[in-house]
Design goal:
The structure holds 2 protein chains of 2 kinds. By secondary structure, chain A is α+β, with helices and mostly antiparallel strands. In chain A, helix 9 packs antiparallel against helix 10. The longest helix of chain A has about 40 residues. Chain A is globular, with a radius of gyration of 26 Å. Chain B contains 12 helices and no strands. In chain B, helix 7 packs across helix 8. The longest helix of chain B is centred in the middle third of the chain and has 39 residues. The radius of gyration of chain B is 25 Å and the shape is globular. The chains are: A alpha+beta, B mainly alpha. The interface between A and B is large, with 45 and 49 residues.
């Protein structure tokens, strides 16, 4: 390929020419190259991608309806249409024979059904099966209403990740803007914004979040916004520090001399150069937001029922802690793995972008 | 030093004002006004038809809480009340808020101080050891171990500890409820102390391990940075023993960022306190705050937020002073 020569350097030790390696020499090329060298970081990345996949396709992974149903020459998708049955076939009865993925019904009426891996929806309850330990039918057991724990955990991933991403998104927008303004203009805006950061840092964040959420109607959007509104300080500090450094550089002076507007300088020239610590902070922020959301759900201030959340399952386990170990271990482990995965990615990214480690 | 202290204290004042302002703003978020809520809670749904009597009561409650005055005046009143430590009366049981807090504050402070102390005592040696034996098997295990420790959610750890040690399927070594056993008043002072400590073991473990993991990794990173500096190389070249090089020169310089961490450890510990105290039924300020939020007891909520913010400011001040005392490069004007 002709362009490979333009984006790669050759790492060559003259004494051992056979060990020559091509190393990318664009900024993000270098970062991803060094990131991939750390196995733990790559593992963390795979886990986050897995969680992302689970969150997006939750409907197809855990549901009490078949994904695809073929009958009399017509194909239907019960998962999306929400029907309880099609013709003489009721999904609940079809499920009784415990099919695995593909099910073929023979006899008077023929049909083919494709089932999701977990054949229970997170909200269907069956009091006959309440608090049953992990077994053949419910792989992770059931909670005190007979709801399948594995299914609830799969949908809980959706809650955790969406809260994580959106809360951090909000915090990032607020923090980056304020940090940029403080760093670029200096003077009074810097003083005011730095004071605001200090104030936000002094008030214990978690308690503040609980206090605000207690005053608002329970909803997942309120949680996202509140976590975002209390988490912007980290971003603001990093961007402000980067801007203070960037302001001294010559190319900014040149831009001023050329008459570029403030908006142009900040958004087109300075911000793209300041984003590196912001990215690392964002990944750690997602880990923190997942933890906060789980803690809130654990205390009862999280997403309103019946939406499942990992912290919610964990809080249920408090009442049955002597014997219902599956209610404690599985959701807690899920929270732990998600946080660890994002921390790993954040650390890997930070080390990959660290200019001090001589490359 | 005195001038520096006075300067710092003066700088705190705008921050304190900002905190009181934020807590004031949050009060205003309260849906409906507290007077209405009081009436509804007291009378129940059935009697909401009696308009005139409730209107009079609403008016009186509003005057009591100063809710009928314009907002800026309310804020100034709020400010005045904070300075006189008059946080009003709890909605739940009409006791003086400050009394309720004062009887629980010592416990939370005890818990957090012991925790912070343990964090520093354990994390610093581990961090230094890790940094001096970089890449060794022990270092790798410690690093990975602390990393995972740091990512564990505290409420999960609390529940796992209860499951394992608190009388479930496994051992029953530690109590999981309260901070003193029944009949503890009749024990002698030593027995009482031991009993109290026995109760505190699990909560303190939960509060400590997170900060421990974080501080240990920070110490390692800080020490590694310092060890690469030229003056360490000079110290070694001078022929100083490795111990002196590490502890007298490297460690003292690496200590500086760790002290600033102290200021941020306090608010995070306090937040963690809320969860841990609820799980272990420790009668501290965190549990009071949690219950207050549950029962929408606004005066208590506002008081706790303000007080913990001030405590954090105190921590910031202490860490700044320590930093200034330790770093001879900082000129104290």
């Amino acid at each position: 390929m002709t362009d490979r020569a333009e984006t790669f350097d050759l790492q060559l030790d003259a004494n051992y020419p056979e060990t020559a390696v091509e190393v990318p020499n664009t900024y993000w090329g270098m970062v991803s190259h060094h990131f991939r060298k750390k196995k733990l970081a790559v593992f963390g990345l795979w886990v986050t991608l897995f969680l992302f996949f689970v969150a997006i396709f939750a409907d197809l992974i855990a549901n009490d309806k078949p994904i695809l149903f073929y009958h009399h020459g017509t194909i239907s998708f019960p998962v999306f249409s929400g029907a309880d049955k099609a013709g003489p076939f009721v999904w609940k009865d079809l499920r009784k024979s415990d099919p695995f993925l593909l099910q073929r019904v023979t006899g008077k009426e023929e049909a083919i059904a494709v089932w999701p891996i977990v054949k229970y929806s997170p909200t269907e309850y069956n009091l006959l099966e309440y608090l049953s330990p992990p077994g053949v039918r419910h792989w992770f057991g059931t909670d005190d209403s007979g709801r399948d724990v594995l299914s609830r955990m799969i949908y809980g991933a959706r809650v955790s990740l969406s809260v994580g991403f959106i809360a951090v998104g909000i915090a990032m927008i607020i923090g980056v803007l304020l940090g940029a303004l403080a760093g670029y203009f200096g003077g009074w805006s810097d003083i005011v914004i730095s004071r605001a950061i200090e104030i936000m840092l002094t008030i214990p964040t978690f308690f503040l979040i609980i206090a605000i959420i207690a005053f608002l109607p329970p909803s997942i959007y309120n949680i996202m916004v509140v976590i975002g509104l209390t988490g912007w300080t980290g971003f603001a500090r990093f961007v402000r520090a980067e801007f203070l450094k960037l302001k001294q550089l010559d190319f900014i002076t040149a831009l001023h001399a050329l008459g570029a507007s403030h908006r142009r300088i900040i958004f087109l020239h300075m911000l793209p150069n300041a984003m590196a610590p912001v990215l690392v902070s964002a990944v750690f922020g997602i880990a923190g937001a997942i933890l906060t959301e789980s803690s809130l759900s654990f205390l009862g201030f999280g997403v309103p029922p019946p939406t499942p959340s990992w912290g919610d399952i964990l809080s249920q386990s408090r009442d049955y802690i002597e014997f219902a170990w599956w209610l404690t271990i599985f959701p807690g482990f899920a929270i732990f793995m998600s946080i660890t995965a994002y921390n790993l990615v954040g650390e890997g990214l930070r080390d990959a972008m660290d200019p001090k480690l001589f490359r | 030093m005195k001038v520096y202290l006075i300067k710092r204290l003066l700088q705190i004042i705008p921050t304190m004002l900002g905190i009181t302002f934020i807590t004031f703003v949050i009060i205003q978020l309260a849906p409906g006004n507290p007077a209405m809520l009081k009436i509804q809670m007291g009378k129940g749904q059935a009697e909401l038809g009696e308009k005139t009597a409730s209107e009079l009561i609403i008016k009186q409650t509003k005057e009591l809480y100063g809710l009928d005055k314009p907002l800026p005046v309310q804020y100034l009143l709020w400010l005045k009340r904070i300075f006189t430590l008059n946080f009003g009366f709890s909605y739940k049981d009409h006791r003086n808020v400050w009394d309720k807090i004062a009887e629980r504050l010592p416990i939370t402070i005890q818990l957090n101080l012991i925790s912070i102390f343990l964090v520093y005592i354990i994390a610093l040696p581990f961090g230094v050891y890790s940094s001096t034996h970089v890449g060794s098997f022990a270092d790798k295990i410690l690093t990975v171990g602390f990393f995972f420790l740091y990512s564990l959610p505290s409420f999960w750890v609390a529940m796992l500890l209860i499951m394992l040690f608190g009388g479930g399927d496994f051992w029953d070594i530690f109590p999981v409820f309260g901070i003193s056993s029944i009949g503890s008043e009749s024990m002698g002072p030593l027995a009482w102390l031991l009993d109290r400590l026995w109760h505190l073991v699990l909560p303190i473990v939960c509060l400590t391990y997170g900060g421990l993991a974080y501080l240990s990794r920070l110490t390692r990173a800080s020490m590694l940075e310092v060890i690469r500096e030229d003056y360490v190389r000079t110290a070694r070249a001078k022929g100083l023993s490795e111990r002196v090089v590490i502890f007298k020169h490297a460690f003292r310089n690496a200590l500086l960022p760790l002290i600033t961490l102290f200021a941020f450890l306090l608010p995070s510990m306090f937040g963690g306190s809320v969860i841990i105290e609820s799980i272990f039924s420790v009668p501290g300020m965190g549990q009071l705050g949690f219950e207050a939020v549950l029962s929408r007891d606004y005066p208590v909520i506002m008081a706790i937020t303000t007080i913990s913010a001030f405590l954090t400011l105190a921590g910031l001040l202490i860490s700044d002073v320590l930093y200034a005392a330790l770093d001879p490069r900082i000129k104290l004007e």
